[in-house]
Design brief:
heterodimer, A: alpha/beta, D-Maltodextrin-Binding Protein, domain 2, about 45% helix, globular, B: 2 domains, about 65% helix
């Protein structure tokens, strides 16, 4: 076995270098990596880890999970509470670190050479009480997708503010409907009562200058006139430029309307870019992306920081190999591979200037602007209560959007609920 | 060998039989204890502690605080906390009761009608009986997901059909709108479980002796009167058992709602909200308290039903 690994390694210079860094394990391990199955992640995984498998002689099996992050979280929490040894590595959402920190291995020491290459804010989001819980493998920040052809047809500029977006969406929608496309809508987004609505609504509120629900110091800021104005703006879309059904849309439903050519604007994550330019897409080559609009007289827009990380289970019996895989997945080679095949945004700063990525996925260097305006969800200040905070927030927003109470009433109530939940401290 | 034989000789035949019966039952009792009683007792225990999912064995006893706690602040204001004063919980209880009563009523009526049709003699009856069962045979997760797509506002087939026949003038967001979410869930549940009710009613109908009908026919009684005066009283015991099975199922409904409208306050049931607390919100003990209440509500309901309806669950028929 060792002989075989050695000959393989000599064949590939890169792999040999990696072996020198990581050290060859004495026995080959078979690792299990669990991750949500979104887009083409499952099909692409074997090719992604092939170089690491060749270099170390270990193998990795991917355990696919549902696309819904809430479903994944529930399952992972059960597994980890039971101390399962079946899964060695978990692909974790950016907001989970404080809630699952106890169950993962501290990667500070192992990743000390890799960490400085990443965006410091992302590393910080995965650090809980000085413990590096997970390593970022790609980041996510949504953008505004717009139909270049239709904006040109109706002589509309790319909107800079939410108010402009509303007007433009209405213009294009009226025009397309008059032309016989009865199912055409101006703007689609994610309005279902779930984590995605927290992301959408946080962007509206923040871009209006209404804070970020719970501020980094732990104070509750959501009940303010700017946040109310932001929600009223969104409420006005439902049933006019956005279908009533948007209140049940997650990412894939919005992409469904968009990709069949039935929407002028869409708010979505970068993965929709690659898929929208696929051969089976009705909007292939017809759309562009830009930063999300700004609200009111606030000068900056906001994009909710998403992204995925890899964490090593402390119950794993193969930790050494698992850590080595985590380092590989968070490293430049794997991140570049992901960027090229899945239009995932790298978390390594240098990759945004990579010529190959710029040629293969021209959108990624553009996304640097989006990313610079990213706003984190309040998972750090609210610690273990984040899920409940988020659920209260999306419920209040969903109620407002569906017409159960005004934005002012619902946010006032939300403020009371959040302060009761907070008590003396989060 | 000789010893055991001597021991057996000392027992009467009845005692021997009882002893044998006990040993045959023992494995089942042990299995039932492990999969039903033990988890239940443990959940009740958790509901009196401050256990969290990250630390299942480190919970401390806190009494009834998860159910109800009263605290007086320094300002003199009294604060009530716990499931029993949680509006979200009572909203879920109300949703569950509403869902159960409406769905079971519709399913019983429709099931009875279907059973009466299937009880009649006609060609291809066996085939129809089998075909009717298909919705019941599909796993709920699969059928719920299927209906979720059919009810989708933009590319769902339901809206398409209704639009084409002119029943609605614009597409309805069935699962998204709080006004229609409960109807959507009810519709899917009725579609799925009517066959089950029909099957149980059919079993009851087939127990009714034919000569009763013949006698009624000879006397010239109107068929509607025959149904209410003869058929219904005779199948009532079977019907009552069918209703309680369905009711128990409906009161703990989870999968259908979790797939179709997971976070909508308009349809959230007791099971859905306790799972949310147990897993998503890391309030494991609080969720356990809600599970315990759910169990208590079911137990009270079943006792009342059996007592008031004088339902015979023993199957011996004597009253």
């Amino acid at each position: 076995m060792t002989f075989e690994i050695t000959t393989r390694a000599i064949r590939s210079g890169a792999a040999f270098a990696m072996m020198a860094v990581l050290g060859a394990p004495a026995v080959a391990d078979d690792l299990f990596y669990v991750s949500g199955a979104v887009g083409a992640a499952v099909e692409n995984f074997p090719a992604l880890v092939k170089p690491w498998e060749d270099a170390t002689g270990n193998t990795v099996t991917m355990v696919p999970m549902p696309a819904s992050t809430s479903d994944q979280f529930g399952q992972y929490r059960l597994w980890l509470a039971a101390g399962t040894q079946d899964i060695d590595l978990f692909q974790t959402d950016v907001i989970w670190a404080p809630q699952l920190a106890d169950h993962f291995v501290d990667l500070t020491e192992a990743a000390k050479d890799l960490v400085p290459q990443h965006f410091p804010s992302i590393i910080e989001s995965q650090t809980v009480n000085g413990k590096l819980v997970a390593l970022p493998i790609f980041t996510d920040a949504p953008a505004l997708f717009y139909r270049k052809d239709l904006l040109e047809k109706y002589g509309v500029a790319v909107p800079k503010t939410w108010a402009e977006l509303t007007v433009s969406a209405q213009t294009v929608q009226d025009g397309e409907r008059a032309a016989g496309k009865g199912d055409f809508w101006g703007f689609v987004w994610q309005g279902n009562a779930y984590e995605g609505l927290t992301c959408n609504a946080l962007e509206w509120v923040k871009s209006f200058g209404g804070g970020q629900i719970v501020e980094p110091d732990g104070s509750i800021s959501i009940n303010n006139p700017k946040a109310i104005a932001a929600l009223e703006q969104a409420k006005a879309w439902v049933g006019t430029v956005s279908p009533d059904g948007v209140l049940a849309y997650q990412e894939e439903e919005a992409r469904g309307v968009w990709q069949t050519g039935n929407a002028a604007f869409m708010r979505n994550w970068p993965y929709a870019y690659g898929l929208g330019n696929g051969d089976d897409s009705a909007v292939k080559g017809l759309f562009g992306v830009t930063t999300l609009p700004t609200g009111g007289d606030n000068p900056t827009s906001a994009a909710t920081l998403g992204g995925w990380n890899v964490a090593v289970s402390k119950y794993s019996t193969k930790q050494e190999a698992a850590i080595s895989l985590a380092l590989y997945l968070a490293g430049p080679e794997a991140q570049k591979h992901r960027a090229l095949t899945e239009s995932n945004l790298p978390t390594i700063v240098a990759l945004y200037d990579d010529a190959e990525i710029a040629a293969g996925q021209p959108i990624i260097p553009q996304w640097k602007d989006v990313f610079l305006q990213a706003v984190p969800r309040p998972s750090a200040p609210t610690l273990g209560k984040y899920n409940e905070v988020s659920s209260k927030f999306w419920s209040a927003v969903h109620a407002t959007l569906s017409g159960n109470g005004t934005a002012a009433e619902n946010l006032e109530l939300l403020e009371i609920e959040l302060s009761e939940m907070k008590g003396d401290a989060w | 060998m000789a010893n055991s034989k001597a021991a057996v000789v000392g027992l009467t035949l009845l005692q021997q039989r009882q002893r044998a019966a006990f040993w045959f039952l023992a494995p089942m009792l042990v299995a039932l204890f492990c999969v039903a009683a033990w988890p239940l007792l443990r959940t009740v225990w958790f509901s009196f502690t401050d256990t969290s999912l990250n630390n299942l064995y480190g919970g401390k006893w806190i009494g009834f605080d998860n159910y109800l706690s009263v605290r007086t602040l320094e300002s003199g204001r009294v604060i009530y906390r716990g499931t029993l004063v949680d509006p979200a919980w009572w909203n879920a209880v109300w949703n569950t009761v509403r869902f159960s009563v409406v769905s079971v009523t519709i399913e019983t009526v429709l099931g009875l009608i279907v059973a009466l049709v299937l009880n009649a003699e006609f060609k291809g009856r066996g085939l129809v009986r089998a075909a009717v069962l298909i919705p019941w045979a599909i796993p709920t997760i699969v059928s719920a997901k299927m209906w979720a797509w059919m009810l989708n506002d933009q590319y769902g087939i339901i809206n398409d059909i209704l639009l084409r026949i002119g029943a609605i003038d614009k597409k309805i967001a069935w699962t998204a709108s709080t006004d229609t979410a409960m109807y959507a869930v009810l519709m899917v549940d009725v579609w799925k479980t009517t066959p089950f009710m029909a099957l149980l009613c059919l079993a009851g109908l087939q127990m009714v002796p034919r000569d009763v009908y013949e006698a009624a026919k000879i006397d010239g009684v109107h068929p509607v009167k025959v149904f209410f005066k003869v058929t219904l009283p005779l199948i009532k015991p079977a019907l009552m058992v069918a209703v309680i099975f369905r009711m128990l199922d409906a009161l703990r409904v989870f999968d259908l709602i979790y797939v179709l409208t997971p976070n909508s306050a308009a349809t959230k049931t007791m099971s859905v909200i306790s799972r949310e607390n147990l897993i998503d919100f890391d309030k494991f003990a609080y969720g356990s308290a809600q599970s315990t209440l759910l169990f208590a509500i079911l137990a009270i309901f079943v006792s009342l039903y059996i007592w008031l309806g004088r339902v015979d669950l023993s199957g011996e028929g004597g009253k």
